[in-house]
Specification:
mainly alpha, Arc Repressor Mutant, subunit A, Tetracycline Repressor, domain 2, 3 domains, two-stranded antiparallel sheet, about 5% strand, HTH_TetR, Homeodomain-like_sf, DNA-binding, TetR/AcrR family transcriptional regulator, HTH-type_Tx_Regulator
Length: about 260
């Protein structure tokens, strides 16, 4: 684990109370490393056991995870490096040394954040899917009572905008089946449709099998996304959103008659 204090993270490895502290950079080249580590221990000693553990584990006073800007920048650089390398070779062929070299960091930095390169990939996939789900939920999350598919506009439906903003990641992850991204995205969409079925599909008659209807819509959305990605993002995000909404509205009158 890393213990950050007053803007620096230690460049050597030390242990205290069973935790490993990695000091990666120093405010001044001439600083006495031993003296700096004493400061770390003094800071740690002033915390209670639970507070120390929370601080080391990256939690705030409420026990919630926190992440400073330096950690965010480092992890983003490592993930960008992984994406670049995955365009060139398979994951099994990529080494941690290649990842950190491409990102401009040391191996010690990598191991301060991840244990394996697969952990880095998992976090990348989780972030991409998490952002997609947030974009998907945006039209109804803040005002569920007023949600109406017939009233949605391209400005309120952001899933294609989000994909366009993360074009490189989607293009890579969707085309590489062995990374498990497509199945995880499918499952994430299926989970939303299952949990929000009554809200998202209020006009579907009771005699329509719910599971079949959900899966038909899951694969329909994934098919549109895959088509757009495989076409090299031939159309704009707005055009794709327009088409998706028009297609969805075509089925509304028919559903009302069933």
């Amino acid at each position: 684990m890393q213990l950050r204090m007053d803007g620096f993270v230690p460049p050597a490895t030390r242990s205290y109370l069973g935790h490993t502290f990695i000091i990666e950079s120093w405010p001044e080249a001439s600083i006495d490393k031993s003296a700096a580590f004493v400061k770390v221990l003094t800071f740690a000693a002033n915390l209670s056991g639970s507070s120390l553990n929370s601080y080391i584990n990256g939690e705030d006073a409420r026990g919630e995870r926190r992440m400073n800007n330096g950690v965010i920048r480092t992890r983003k650089a490592l993930k960008n490096a992984l994406v670049e390398l995955l365009r060139e070779k398979e994951l099994r062929e990529i080494t941690i040394s290649e990842i950190v070299s491409r990102a401009g960091y040391s191996r010690a930095t990598f191991y301060a954040h991840y244990q394996y390169k697969e952990d880095l990939l998992d976090e990348l996939v989780e972030e991409v899917i998490g952002g997609f789900l947030s974009a998907f939920k945006e039209p109804y999350e803040n005002d569920r009572k007023r949600y109406d598919l017939g009233q949605l506009t391209p400005s309120t439906v952001r899933i294609f905008q989000y994909i366009g903003e993360n074009e490189s990641a989607f293009a890579l992850l969707l085309k590489r089946d062995n990374l498990g991204f497509q199945e995880k995205l499918l499952e994430a969409i299926r989970t939303i449709f299952t949990q929000e079925y009554d809200l998202l599909f209020p006009r579907v008659p009771a005699h329509i099998d719910r599971e079949i209807y959900i899966n038909q819509n899951v694969y329909s959305i994934l098919g549109l996304i895959a088509y757009w990605v495989n076409s090299g993002f031939r159309y704009s995000a707005k055009y794709m959103t327009d088409q998706m909404l028009e297609i969805a509205r075509l089925s509304m009158p028919r559903m009302a008659k069933l």
